[in-house]
Amino acid sequence: VLPEVYRQKFEYSMGLGAKGVANALTVAKKYQNDAIGGAWPDGFATEAEFYVALAERSSPQEFQNKLRGIVNKARSTAPMIANRANVQLAHSLRENGDPTAAQRIYEDVIGKANADDSSRAGAYLGLGKIQLEQAGTDKDLAHKALLNFLRVRLDTRGSWPSLQAEALYHAVLAADKWRGPEYGYIMARCRGTLMSEFKDSEWAAMARR
User: Fold this and answer.
1) CB atoms within 10 A of CB 183
2) What phi and psi values does residue 40 have, to the nearest 5 degrees?
3) Confidence grade of residue 83 (pLDDT, cut at 50, 70, 90)
4) Which residue of 2, 3, 179, 182 is 20 to 30 Å from 133, comparing CA positions?
5) pLDDT value at residue 1
6) Per residue in 27-63, pLDDT tens?
7) Which residues, at least 6 apart from 158, have a Cβ–Cβ distance to it below 8 Å?
8) C-alpha distances in Å from residue 206, one per residue of 74, 112, 118, 180, 188
């Protein structure tokens, strides 16, 4: 089985949300066994290790330590995985009370010339979430969050569908908080795209509630 098949199966399963995690972990461990047992180049084994860490999602500190180890391994052999692991590290830091450290990582990934679409999409998404969470009544910050969510759709078209769906969902929230010119049109467009192109995603399900 080619690595690309494992990637597609893993991304699809993770994109289903909680109901897909068990299958994602099975795929990740099979990928890891094949990469190690087949003596594939180091980058593939590191990618599989990253997938296992994502699917297992242990305690925050343990998860962050695993990701830091993966970043160090992947830096020279698999820069794409290093970027993606850094984005996941930033997500964990943001979710556990350190938005400043998370923002530094997001901005670093966005600024890298070698960052793939899914890495940059994750960084735009995370940065937008920080801005949305901090916006309060600050409409300018809500607008900045909106622009970062829209960049996922406009600037990283090759990113994982699950990232695009999540960005569209949050773009609706950010536009509603911003309430600037044509915000209603933006909300309708984003919601319409979410429901038509990503109707089976967990984010479309949340938008229907």
Assistant:
1) 18
2) -70, 160
3) very high
4) 182
5) 63
6) 999 999 999 988 888 889 999 999 999 999 889 999 9
7) 116, 117, 118
8) 35, 32, 22, 24, 15
Q: What is the pLDDT of residue 24?
A: 94
Residue pair 191/173 in contact (Cβ under 8 Å)? The answer is no
Q: How far apart are CA 5 and CA 162, in angstroms?
A: 17
CA distance 190 to 84: 25
Structure tokens given for 114: 């070698």
Token output for 193: 């795209």
How far is it, in rounded angstroms, from Cα 156 to Cα 109? 13
C-alpha to C-alpha distances, 52 to 20, 106, 121, 135, 142, nearest whole angstrom = 13, 22, 21, 34, 35
Q: Whole-angstrom distance between the N-terminal and C-terminal Cα of the chain?
A: 39
Give the containing element (helix H, strand E) for 164: helix 161-178
DSSP string across 49-107: HHHHHHHH---HHHHHHHHHHHHHHHHHH-HHHHHHHHHHHHHHHHHTT-HHHHHHHHH
Decide: pTM greater than 0.85. yes
Tokens representing residue 51 in the block = 């997938």
Rg for the chain, CA atoms, rounded: 17
122, pLDDT greater than 90: yes
